Amino acid sequence: MSAEKCLAKGSAAPGPVPKDYIRVYSMRFCPFAQRTRLVLKAKGIKYETINVHLKEKPDWYLKKNPFGLVPALETPAGEVIYESAITCEYLDEVYPEKKLLPSSPFAKAQQKMMLEHFSKVIPYFYKIPMDRKKGEDVSGLEAELKEKFAKLNEDLVNKKTKFFGGDSITMIDYMMWPWFERVEAYQVKQFLDGNPELKKWTELMLQDSAVKATMFSPDAHKAFFKTFLDGNPDFDYGL
Ligand SMILES: N[C@@H](CCC(=O)N[C@@H](CS)C(=O)NCC(=O)O)C(=O)O
C-alpha cells in the first residue's frame, strides 16, 4: 500500500509492511524525508510510501513515532526507525548494494562532521524567509548564510573533488541536497553566485538519477512553501 495523498487524523492505520519491502512515512515536500527517499532510490531498495498530514497527525502514526515527525521507516517486523540521518545510515547498513557511507572509520567520521556542521546551516533556510515575511531586517542572517555557503565552496576547492565525499556522490551529498533543491523557494539562490564550486555541485547533483526521481520543480517548491509560510501547508499540493 502506498498513499500519495496524506493520511490525516481519523484515517485507518495501514496494515503490516509487505515482506521484502520497507515503508517510509513521509511528506512530499519535507527535505528531511527527501534524504531517506534519496537513499532508498539510490540503493534501488523496494519500498512503499505513506504520506502523513503533519498538522492533523493520525493517532496510529503517533503510536509508531511518538515525536510525530517524518521521515520514519517501518520494516515488515514492525520495527520503526526515525531521524532522517539515522534512517539513511540504517538503510546503508542493512542493504549492502551501492554503499553510500565510506568503510574507513576516518572517512565516515569526516562525513559525520560535515553533517554536524550542515545541521547548523539548515535553520537559516527557514529563518530568512520567515523573518522577511514578518517585515524584519534579514540582512544579518543573509550575510551569515553567505559565509556558510562560502565555507562549503572552500571545502570543495580544498578537496579538489566534485562532491563532498569524493568524485562520486556519497551519503553527505544526499544529506545536504534537499535544501539546495529549494534555494529559490527559500529566496537564497543568489548566494550561490559567488560560490562557483558549490554552484557546480548543485548542477552535478541535478544530473543524479535519485535526485531526478525524488525532486520537485522550483515552482512546485515555491507554491508549497508559500502555503507553509502562510501557516496552512498544502501537503497534497499538485495532486
Ligand atoms: N530531525 C528530524 C527533523 C524532521 C522534521 O522536522 N520533519 C518535519 C517535516 S519537514 C516534521 O515532521 N514536522 C512535523 C512537526 O513538526 O510536528 C529529522 O532529521 O528527521
UniProtKB/TrEMBL annotation:
Keywords: Oxidoreductase, Transferase. PROSITE patterns: GLUTAREDOXIN_2, GST_CTER, GST_NTER. The gene is GSTO1. One of its GO terms (biological process) is glutathione metabolic process. Residues 104-229 form the GST C-terminal domain. Gene3D superfamilies: 1.20.1050.10, Glutaredoxin (3.40.30.10). Belongs to the GST superfamily. Omega family. GO terms for molecular function: glutathione dehydrogenase (ascorbate) activity; glutathione transferase activity; methylarsonate reductase activity. Its EC number is 1.20.4.2, 1.8.5.1, 2.5.1.18. Residues 20-99 form the GST N-terminal domain. This is Glutathione S-transferase omega. Exhibits glutathione-dependent thiol transferase activity. Has high dehydroascorbate reductase activity and may contribute to the recycling of ascorbic acid. Participates in the biotransformation of inorganic arsenic and reduces monomethylarsonic acid (MMA). It catalyses: RX + glutathione = an S-substituted glutathione + a halide anion + H(+); L-dehydroascorbate + 2 glutathione = glutathione disulfide + L-ascorbate; methylarsonate + 2 glutathione + H(+) = methylarsonous acid + glutathione disulfide + H2O. It holds the Pfam family GST_N_2. One of its GO terms (cellular component) is cytoplasm.
